[in-house]
Amino acid sequence: MTAELPINQIIQGNCIEVMKEWPDESIDIIPTDPPYNISSQTKIVRSGGKFGRARTINLDFGAWDHGVIRPKDWVPLVVEKLKPCGVFVSLYDKRYISHLCDLLEECGMFVRHVAGWHKTNPAPQARKVKWQTALELFVIATKNKGTGHHYNYREGQHHDVITTPICQGNERLDHPTQKPEAFFEPIIRWWSYPNDLVVDPFVGVGTSCVVAKRLGRRFIGIDLNRNYVDMAIKRLGQVEWPLEVFA
Question: Contact, 227 vs 16, CB < 8 A?
Fold first, then answer.
């Protein structure tokens, strides 16, 4: 028995357990930022900042990034849930993103881009042994190999690079890898249509769903962490639907 989709909700749970009950071919776009499993015990303690000791950089992002889930555990499932016009977008560790591409192709997806997020304010290299890490990669793949997928060409041309600062200021919440709304905005604007269903299986504090709502897309977010779910729900309550949704 298939479960009814919890449209325009953020729910707490394991995305595999939740989504396996959903009907196949029911989702238009999946934009997500899953665990990379790259956490370490390393801490970089910096000194000499503008106002004395600078903030320590902690490379342990939390228990959720310690091998709890791998792409082969969830990617085949979400591909089944995508409509024939569906689009899959996911950040991943750039050392292993080719593995994600291979898995998507094994699942029948067509890789359109291995694109980049250029962070204009990356963490400094305090140890002075290499360049700053200012680039993260993400893959864009479609279920349709032709032109039947949802792509807003009327939005005009766009590079396969998104350039934004790391999430900061009033937008920043208590999440170690929170992505800025400006990252998800072009993805959802170009790779989905108004009223499409946007699903993020690793929604964190809700950024992808906030952008989806603002752009007039329906949404569902899933996360294991109750605190993140509560923050996402609160954020979404502060976002208005565009007027054309009710026209």
Answer: no
d(CA 191, CA 211): 13
Q: Which two tokens stand for residue 212?
A: 């989806």
Question: Could you tell me if residue 153 is inside a domain?
Answer: yes
175-185, pLDDT tens digit by residue?
999 999 999 99
Domain extent at residue 183: 11-35+67-239
Give me 179's structure tokens: 């992505």
Is the Cβ–Cβ distance between 32 and 212 less than 8 Å? Answer: no
Q: For the chain, how many structural domains are there in total?
A: 1
Q: Is residue 42 part of a domain?
A: no
Asked, for residue 128, whether it belongs to a domain, the answer is yes
Note the pLDDT tens digit of each residue in 181-200.
999 999 999 999 999 999 99
Enter the DSSP assignment of 125.
-
- 40 in a domain, yes or no? no
Q: What are phi and psi of 154, to 5 degrees?
A: -70, -15
Whether the model pTM is above 0.85: yes
CATH number at residue 174: 3.40.50.150
**How far apart, in whole angstroms, are the C-alpha atoms of residue 221 and residue 205?**
9
